[in-house]
Amino acid sequence: MTDLARSHFILYVSDQEESRRFYEHVLGRPPSLHVPGMTEFRLGAETILGLMPEQGIARLLQLDPAALPARGGLRGEFYLVVSTPEAYHQRACEAGARELSPYALRDWGDWAAYSRDPDGYVLVFAGPDRLARGTVS
Predict the structure, then answer these.
(1) pLDDT tens for each residue of 53-69
(2) Could you tell me if residue 2 is inside a domain?
(3) How many whole angstroms separate alpha carbon 102 and alpha carbon 85?
(4) Computed over its alpha carbons, how large is the radius of gyration of the chain?
(5) Within-domain flag for 1
(6) How far apart are CA 11 and CA 19, in angstroms?
(7) How many domains does the chain have?
(8) Rounded distance, CA 36 to CA 128, Å?
(9) Does the pLDDT at position 113 exceed 90?
(10) Helix (H, G, I), strand (E, B) or coil at 17
(11) Considering only CA atoms, which of 97, 114, 105, 107 is closest in space to residue 133?
């Protein structure tokens, strides 16, 4: 038994509306919450992807916005195991992501595709079942 009731993964984004449109297209669903300062997408029963404007986190933590990482550099990775990874990867690229590596078998046994969102986060869409591709004996 764990004391984690719900998990939120929050990405700091330069433009909340642009990021909302991007992730809405990629995930194929509208956000569960969209208010000034926060957009949320429910990914599972207890998992939420949040999008917070960089200015908001800088204000909240009383940071100089110039101290935040530059847009476009690789800022982190978001690894999603989904039923149709190639379709998710295609939607990401259609929505403006830059492909970093096409869907392929990785040395740890997953089939996965890599792209970069407009804010520099790496999106990975992986298949749910290694057995389906015959990669595990």
Answers:
(1) 988 888 877 888 777 76
(2) no
(3) 11
(4) 16
(5) no
(6) 10
(7) 1
(8) 34
(9) yes
(10) helix
(11) 105
